[in-house]
Amino acid sequence: MKGETENKPVWGSRIGGETSLMNVYYCAGRDPFPKPPADEVLIPYDLWLNKVHCLMLYKQKIVDIKTARAILTGLEEISSLHRKGEIKILKEKEDVHITIESKLGEIAGEEAAGQLHTARSRNDQTTTDCRLYVRDRILEFYVSIVRLVETLLSSAAGHFKTVMPGFTHYQPAAITSWAHFLLSHAEAFMRDLTRLGMTYEQWNASPLGAAAGFGASWNIDREYTARLLGFSSVQENSLDCITNRWEFEVQTAAAVSFFMNHLSILSQDMIILSLSPRPMISIDDAYVTGSSIMPQKKNPDFAEVTRAKAALCHGRTMELLSLSRAALSGYNRDTQWTKYAIMDIFDEVHYAPILFSSVVETLKIDKAEMKKRCSEQFITAVDIADFIAQEKKIPFRQAHRILSESVLECEKEGKLDFDKINARLMRLGKKSLKLRKGDWAILTSPERLVERRKHMGAPGEQALRKNWDRLKKNLKIKKDWYKQKQKDLDSTHRMLREEIDKILKTK
Fold this sequence. Notes:
single chain; mainly alpha; Fumarase C, Chain A, domain 2; Fumarase C, Chain B, domain 1; disordered N terminus
């Protein structure tokens, strides 16, 4: 017995099959997983930047070949030590920049290490480090959202005719389809991809070389360092580079917050649609959690946690905006806190789209229950009012009143009555207004009612297929954009390797 339960959560006996560890970690919060110092996360970016800056100093004849070789050899050794987990931020050195410079001094000598800081400040150094970090996180997050949209499209493809109730004010409102529901979320996530892509493109500019905000008297080449850091351009005005260090982070945080808001809506939908005793969807056991006291419980904790993570993103976004307001042009120490806020955001949301892809992929859909709900609580009333207005050529407001009165009259029975609706129509004084049995057959079929909605974006099958096709084509454009960015960065790293090897292998 002990061997069967010791590795399970306290609630694990209720859950059939394997529990998703990703879901457990996602729901556990930050307590079981201590975070590394922010500057420790920036070590690989600072090493990259240092190598590029050294190459530029040599290219511009600011340092000689011997010094450049000593610096680059030392930085390569530090990179190797970092990959082994042997480089940590030293408290007495204050930050990542001085920690690496100090280690470089031990390896390459104080003189060479001291030369590396020529024509730069920790201000442009840390701004560039953070930009490289955020840029990578955007791409990681972007491609995981792409996968989520792909999953939604794949799931929707099999449900163009699966009818279900749609809601307003948490109350049954009108009939729609499961595919229409899924594509609505896909549309929202596609806008999130656009926002993230636009943010990436707008800020893919190098602040390196701005120094403390007022440039340098050395003959530096900022375009060269921009290329070797994978930036598409240089952020030109040196003062703007430093004054607006926060702006890229805010814009990114806002884009992530939009996504998390959209994801929180999907979360709430899943909670409501899976409610007992008559769930319309069933979440796979791998993605639910149990209770420490109530043995019967299976809870959609991932969906509830997502709402909390969305709230955290909102708070951090406002924090970033507040940190930047009314600061004097130039560097202000306030902006040190921008890296903590943006790192918190990415730490919280990293697995969100990946987890939801798996949840959507494994959802069980109860088509029979969905269809049954499409005949309850007068959900067809709007379609019947529309039908009467269209087919009997009376004003919609008149048809709406007839159905409202019919609903009131039939409330005890819980469903609309053909004869009672006809009785109200006959009071208008024309026999031709009566509904026929054939009309009623249409008006009591959820599938036929949905198919009557054929305009662009409607839940009718024909419209849905067009919506699906457009989303599929647009998603390919998004995927191609991502692939190009990855190719560009791969090319940048190859170029950097070649530039380093030219110096290290020069006799």
